[in-house]
């Protein structure tokens, strides 16, 4: 399990001619490879191109190198053994709405998931089990996500075709119906994770410890702050973690590469927000401006402060007439607040957010060190592999309203910090300017009680089939040629861009 700590190499493969995903199931390979043991259909070159890219990424990372090209090649045997349980954690943030971003830029789709399932079937054998699970936004329609991204069709294909068993799980406890952006018109309790949940306590080992004096300001938009305060205060920092995650022998993080309003980028590290069952256990920002102990927006703004207080009250109000009136009043105040100078930032969506990265590193600590009961152990508890889907990446107002970028790329690695640093640098952004990456190498390194990494960013190396990427070091992004320059979210423009010389524009 120590591959996570020592995995300083990141595979990054690219096919510039691959501009999207196949539309029709079952999303198989372009041809029958030597290791392909299934009597299942294979597609033409277009249908199988994404499958082939995933295969190439696993081979480039050097998995089961001695058997590559032979019938016995078992690339995922490094993380999965016969009879064990593997949790595949995709990024399924939200279904796509009419007029909004296409599903292919919002979520990881079936074309990337299918080869992972196939290679897991080889590694697990007939007695294994695969759990495909995420906790998307409360406003997400889980079944629509599965229909839009092709997973519902993939489920039907997989059913009845033998072992291992595939289970698809919605890890949320609550869902809401929204209109007009964030106006809640209905709320319902969900069945949640059939494996239950554990309250995982990090206490003094939480990365939030450095700002816990401001615990009363911890917020996540549209949630009641009182619930947050019960789980994050001086000496207490706990998360409601899915039992499906804690009971897994291995986790495959299947993330979607997008720029992110609050975190700068979302890939492997940020994807672990979806292992928590209730979002009101997750501090995303601190209410107010830095001058008043917050990091929600840069400068003091009395109208924003009033709107935030109204938002707290609104989150505690049940949908109905009273809720609608309060929502209208809060919205009018928020619009008015934008008339003040320097007021374009809301909800911690800027480079000065000093809260989110701490919560994200906490959840990654939980992923690796929490045992089945939820207690934090002294050594990593489960194996891990990250795959980053950048066949179509997202730029601009991510993660919910990104513009698509057809990059034809996919990354793979054992360490989430290394993978995220590489992905950020290859796509034209500076990983040292993204707190969850830079502070992760600094604060979650080998000197800590529960390290996430045993090397520095300057030791990370990219292995690639693409000129200019092979041998690249994300600590020196300006030296990488062939970078694909993503446009950052508005609150990060001018802070992340590396440069344009010799690069491809996204």
How many strands, which pairing sense, and closed or not: the largest β-sheet?
9 strands, mixed
Q: How far apart, in Å, are the first and last alpha carbons?
A: 36 Å
Q: What is the share of helical residues?
A: 25-40%
* Coarse morphology: globular
The total tally of domains equals 1
Low-confidence parts: none
**Average of per-residue pLDDT values:** 92
Strand content: 15-25%
Number of strand elements: 18
Structural class: alpha/beta
Q: Using only CA atoms, what is the Rg?
A: 22 Å
Description:
This protein has one domain (3-298, 345-505). It contains 14 helices and 18 strands. It has helices at 3-6, 45-60, 103-106, 110-124, 142-148, 151-158, 225-231, 243-246, 268-271, 302-315, 321-337, 356-369, 416-426, 435-443, and strands at 9-14, 85-90, 129-134, 165-170, 174-179, 183-189, 197-201, 218-219, 232-233, 236-242, 250-260, 264-266, 285-286, 383-397, 401-413, 461-464, 484-485, 504-505. α2 packs across α4, α10 (302-315) runs antiparallel to α11 and α12 crosses α14. The longest helix is centred in the middle third of the chain and has 17 residues, at 321-337. The two termini are 36 Å apart.
Summarize this structure as a short list of keywords or feature phrases.
506 residues, 18 strands, three-stranded antiparallel beta sheet, 14 helices, alpha/beta, 26% helix, globular
